[in-house]
Structures are given as structure tokens and as C-alpha cells.
Specification:
The chain is 42% helix and 20% strand. It is α/β, with parallel strands linked by helices.
Length: 477
Amino acid sequence: MAKLFIGRESEEAEFKRLTAKSTASLIVCQGRRRIGKSTFFRHCAQDADLFLSFEGLAPRDKIDKNAQLEAFAIALNLQTKAPKVTLDSWPQAFDLLDSVLPATGTIVILFDEISWMAIGDPDFPGYVKSAWDARFSQRPKLILVLCGSVSSWIEENILKNTGFAGRPSWHLKLPPLALPACNQFWRGKAVGAAEKLKALAVTGGVPRYLEEIDPAQTTEQNIERLCFNASGLLFNEFNLIFHDIFTRRADTCRDIMATLTDGAKTLAEIGAALGKKNTGGSLSAILEDLESAGFLHRDGSFSPDTAKTMPRKVRYRILDNYIRFYLKFIEPAAEQIKKGIYQVSPLETLQAWDTIMGLQFENLILSNQSLLIERINLGNVPVLNAGPYFQPATGKVLGCQIDLMLRTKSSVYVFEIKFRKSIGTSVMDDVREKVKRLNVDSSLSVRTGLIYQGELDPKIAEADYFDHLVKFADLLK
């Protein structure tokens, strides 16, 4: 029985467009581990005449170029009629691969975890480029996919490499699944939006994690099995991710992420939390790598009046819901979990649960802004800018923080994102004060909205203050 494939409709359509071409295409794909990169390309290549996949060996002690070449030779032998030979170099490997490809038909070749394939050979990117220019690009209807989770390596060695300039037909950053696609993992079971939100607060839109959700179990049972069990997938996942992607810098990257578990921070605030300054730009470089890997997001506030982003008002937030949940709730209990003495409590009793759930809920909404835009009937209206807004207090203005602000040509949309068991009328007062502190130019209209999960006080709807009331359940549809 074929494995169920969910979501990625727009990306799949673009892949099909490339397969319809009469010339070769080079695709560069980035994305965090478990996001489904290789699964996506395997799915898209179902109708190809030939699909070949080669994956680099994960970093470990004494791994070298010869080990990577041997793995390539074995994979080639298993998938084609190529003889099992000892390869001495990557040019030899690519020549052998080219020699066994059919003369006609659609061919898809996947180089997965390409940065690992390059271990031990600094000239590897150049060999790939030469093979593409001399051989693979000359074959009609061939698609070569360069794919990896170490985004910093791809940025440095392919995307910013002048040798590859103008060659990729498509640069794809595979994101987490959109909320309606996530919803399909419950397979039509009558599970409430509140339970689904709890699960997504832990997994985000990562397909591999969502595959482990058992709709027959409660959210608490699923999370206990996956997170608070020494053999659970999400108990052991964090260290594997950080070691495989960041190797020697894994501990430093983990420390940076830990400073952001309770909310977004500026570069200076992160440096202060770590007890060091941004000497030589090293902290900025690591933050860029974490952002490129899909673990952090760089939010730049924009002016509500001009819609222009303000570079000096930049804050970093954890984008990956699993990472935050691990650092906040799993890691502190790791030793007890390993010893089998951890006492699982209801999720709502975990320290700072409501605060963390609020942050996780915000992440989900911010990652699904396009769904919200459609929901409030702005699908055909140009949105000039969008994102969280932060206005620090100064001698002239009061501080102001807005969960999500949208700017169109004539309007500013101020959205509050709220997760509470019960949501009272004070939320209207909070938003009124934020709008007042924004002090938007009088030529612009200000429209307000509330995106929520919880029981809404009936007086909120009766007051007719919010222009848009959006239930989380509506975004799952």
C-alpha cells in the first residue's frame, strides 16, 4: 500500500511544470530534517521513467571521502545495472552515473543531504557543477535535485557560488505543512480543534512528527508517548537534529535557542543572555544559520504609516514549535525520563504552559498568514507588509507589541492572537490601547481582528468591536 502523501500542491505543480520542459532542470532544495524533502521528490517522480536517489552518510568520527564514494557506488549498483566498483573520485562517480542513464525519457536524480556527500572533499561543489555543465544538463528532460538540511552549506557552496550562477531552474525552501494539510493527519476523525492545537503546539507542521499522531489516542496520550518516554521519537530527536546539522557548533546553537524559549529577543538581548557581545559578528552568523535551517525567524517591524521595514527593529523568535517544546518541557525532565521515574502530569499543569502555548499558537498563525488573508477576504488585495510589530518605549512614545499587523494600500490591520480557556472582554481594551499607541496616520483606516482558540465571552461579539473574529478551527478547513 502506497504511503499517504499530504499537502504540497503548489510545489508539486511547479515540479510537474519542470518535467514538461524539453530541457534539463537543476533544483536546489533546503529544509529542516523530517520536513519531507526526499519524500516530496520521490512522490513527484512517480511518473518519471527513472528515479535515482543518493544520500550522503551522516557526519561521524573518521567519515571521509572514500566512505561517501563507497556509499554512492553501492546505491548506484542497487538502483541500476552499473557494476559495483571502487570509486576514486567524484568525477569518476558522476561519469559512471551518466554512462548508465537511458538516452530518452524523464529522469530524476536526487542528491540528498548533499553537504554530507561533500565530506572530505572541498572540491565537491565544483565537481557537481562540472558534471552538470558537461553531462547532465545536456540530457533532455533530466532533473537533478541538490537537496539538504544543512542550509548554510547550500547557501555558501551552491546559491552564493558564482560557478552555479544562473543554473538552478528552481530554488525551493520546503516549509512546514499548512494548517489544512496538518488537519488531514487526523484522517477525518472527530477530534476537536483544541486537541489538534495542542498536538501542533508540539509538532508544528513537520510531516514526520504528524505521522506519529494516533487519532485514537488523546493529545495527552500522544505527547506522553512521543515526548516523555525514553524511547519516544520526540524525546531523542533534538540532539540528533542539532548534531547532524551543526556538528561542532551544536551546543552553541542550542544555547542560543534556549535564550528564546520565553519569547523573541533582539541581537543585543540574545548576546546579553549568553553573557557575551556579538564579537566579530559571530553571533549574527550563527543566527543566520539557525534562520536558514528553519529553526528561527527574523522579524523586522515595519512602519504602519509607510509599510517600510525598519532594519533596526529586528527580533529573533523560535519558529520551530518542536524545538521550543523540547527545550522548555522535555529537556528539564530528561534524566527522570531516562530513569523511568518521570511523573506525567496533565499538560495544563506544566509550568508556564499557557504562556508557551500562546507563543506556539502565534507561530502557527504567523506561518499561515496566507490562509488568514484569504479568510478575511484580502485574497485579491495587495498586502504591502505583514508580521509582528514591536514598538519600544522611548521618551516620546509608549511601548507597543502587536501579534500580527497587516498593511494594505489604505488600511492597517491589527490582530491579537489569543489562546485561553476563556477569553474575556478585556481583550478589547488591550487592542484599543495598542491601536492608540500606534498613532497611525489619519489617512489610513485601522481594522482590528482577533484570532483565537478558547471560549469567547458572548459580549465580545455583541460589542462588534473587532472587524474580524477568526476561530482556529476555521483555519484548519
